[in-house]
Amino acid sequence: MVTERFDAIVVGAGPAGSAAAITMARAGLNVVLFERGEYPGSKNVMGGVMYGRMLADVLPETFAQAPMERLIVEERVWMATPSSAVSLGFRSAAHGGPSGPGGAGHSGEVPNAFTVLRAPFDRWFAAQAEAAGALLITGTTVEDVIRQDGRIVGVRAGREGGDVYGDVVIICDGVNSFLAQKAGLQRRPVEPSEMALAVKEIIALPREVINERFAVRDGEGVTIEVYGSVTQGMAGYGFIYTNRESLSVGIGALISHLMRTKITPYALLEGFKQHPLVARLIEGGQPQEYAAHAIPEGGYEAMPNLFGDGVLIAGDAAMMVNGLHREGSNLAMTAGRLAGETVVQARARGDISAASLAAYRDRLEQSFVLPDLRKYRALPALADRRPELLAIYPQLVNEVVEEMLTVDGLSKRAKQKKIWRHLRAARSPWQVLKDLYTGWKAIR
Ligand SMILES: Cc1cc2nc3c(=O)[nH]c(=O)nc-3n(C[C@H](O)[C@H](O)[C@H](O)COP(=O)(O)OP(=O)(O)OC[C@H]3O[C@@H](n4cnc5c(N)ncnc54)[C@H](O)[C@@H]3O)c2cc1C
Questions:
Q1: Domains 5-48+117-189+299-367 and 69-115+191-297 share a fold
Q2: Tag placement on the chain: N or C end, fewer CB within 10 Å?
Q3: Which CATH architecture has domain 69-115+191-297?
């Protein structure tokens, strides 16, 4: 095993860990990056949408070489009942990909969002850390931190002679961070209401079929998020994302709700795939891969301490997920980069004390990461307490639209009256106002 002493030790070669390792190795630091998987990405699961700006911030020259599947040109949200959906979509030339041949990632411009498959993406991203001079050690689980006089001075990897020492340890081991506990950063146990479980299938389909079904060209992609009946009364949503020659199809819900309803994630995904609007998009596809993974949804209130003596924490390990906006990888990459920059600056000053590492929190405050998490700090509790809101309103919206679009000889004024009577019976205006206010308070 490694006997050398490192300037920095990074645990976990996901978006956060590789971003941290790249940043520090590029600045000339001696960095080791540990990954428990056989190779980076071998154990990782994600819906699959990543964001160009945050990748380009880490790799300004080479971001376009990333193994992107399709550039997202259209984002849709469906509010579904068991037999219908009201759809809201956004397509913009500004978010469009390259129009010529070559496909995703070849235009040189920073794409807004793109889909990835984690195995090739994480492998490529970690290889950029290696190219910058970091030592990547795969197939090795870090089991503990090593302390001396209260300061964290290294990690204990799960193999013989596995003690490795360094000036700083950056913990990026993902959701349910075991090392956050070992390092004493976790402030309290995470509740089932602060964690979601998502299941996902990759369904192979020919490229032309995807292009035709989603009305896109080669290299262009679509995201669909589905709220409403598909989560069977639980807080969560389903998703369909287009890859080059496959679809990522998945659904997730809060663990507290899965426990209460006793609905299995597998049954949830099967129900989602059988929704008539989903079924026609995946028709004829060959399931290739099935995976389940937790998502930290506790937000700002459930975050651990972000730094300590000799240690920083970034990404899912630090609860950095913005569920409402389907963002996690970008928070992870940004936090990893900022953790790396903090260490580079602390070393340049010759002061790697906890007080010096505290600049990490300031950097996160000045970025979008902490402001966004703070903005939605009340949302996780609301999602846990009031999941019915995600069922009632999609149902009502569908009923209203269906009534208005059904041409049955009833005058439009009569329809309006009918809708109004129906809405009042389903939810009083007072109740709607209260719901709106509750929702607004959680996201303002
Ligand atoms: C189903 C699903 C869909 C999602 N969809 C999206 C999306 O569309 N867009 C988006 O932005 N985000 C999405 N997310 C969230 C996103 O995947 C995460 O926020 C992001 O991957 C966090 O990156 P990370 O580096 O912090 O953690 P991870 O990606 O989990 O990486 C952690 C790494 O650490 C390694 N590791 C763990 N423990 C150890 C150890 N002890 N020793 C050594 N190595 C260790 C793991 O093997 C892994 O490689 C989704 C998540 C899920 C589960």
A1: no
A2: C
A3: 2-Layer Sandwich (3.30)
Q: What is the structure's pLDDT at 109? A: 86
Choices 3.50.50.60, 3.30.200.20, 2.102.10.10, 3.30.40.230: CATH for 5-48+117-189+299-367:
3.50.50.60
14 alpha carbon to ligand 1 midpoint, in Å? Answer: 6
Taking alpha carbons only, the member of 50, 13, 21 closest to residue 341 is 21
Name the residue of 44, 115, 144, 201 to mutate for ligand 1: max ligand atoms within 8 A of Cβ: 44
How far is Cα 396 from Cα 378, in angstroms, rounded to an integer? 25
| Cα-to-centroid distance, 17 and ligand 1 (Å) | 10
**Helix or strand holding residue 284 (H, E):** none
**Which of 10, 22, 36, 55 gets mutated to test ligand 1 (max ligand atoms within 8 A of its CB)?**
36
Q: How is residue 176 written in tokens? A: 């349910």
How far from 95 is each of 90, 239, 307, 324, 331, CA to CA, in Å?
10, 20, 36, 20, 20
Closest-CA residue, ligand 1 atom 21, reads: 329
Reported as a single tens digit per residue, the pLDDT across 211-247 is 999 999 999 999 999 999 999 999 999 999 999 999 9
Can you tell me the distance from the alpha carbon of 48 to that of 242, in angstroms, rounded to the nearest whole number? 9
Which tens digits make up the pLDDT trace of 398-411?
999 999 999 999 99
DSSP string, 353-382: SHHHHTHHHHHHHHSSHHHHHHHTTTHHHH
